[in-house]
Amino acid sequence: VQLVESGGGLVQPGGSLRLSCAASGFTFSRYDMKWYRQAPGKERELVATISSTGGITNYADSMKGRFTISRDNAKNTVYLQMNSLKPEDTAVYYCNVRTIFRDYWGQGTQVTVSS
Known about the structure:
Layout: E1 2-6, E2 9-11, E3 17-24, E4 33-38, E5 45-50, E6 57-59, E7 67-72, E8 77-82, E9 91-98, E10 103-105, E11 109-113
């Protein structure tokens, strides 16, 4: 299993970024996918979840209305569209899949929101 995140960077408050996570090594369309984030000195927290078909999504309260998770099963890719970014969104963002064996994580992509 391999998960490769991309799309992070430096953005001003109020700006937008779109993160991508390219998956391989498992049958992507059969699994729910998740985005997590971890800010310096804080625990990793769940950002959003999307079901295997993409029909069900869930978000942490602080991301509702600003973030959108989506997936393209033909491309084995999950996305996180982030709008109205705030400085407190600064973190390393990770995608995750939980199989019957274990959790798998990507290497993360840094998002920094600063003026």
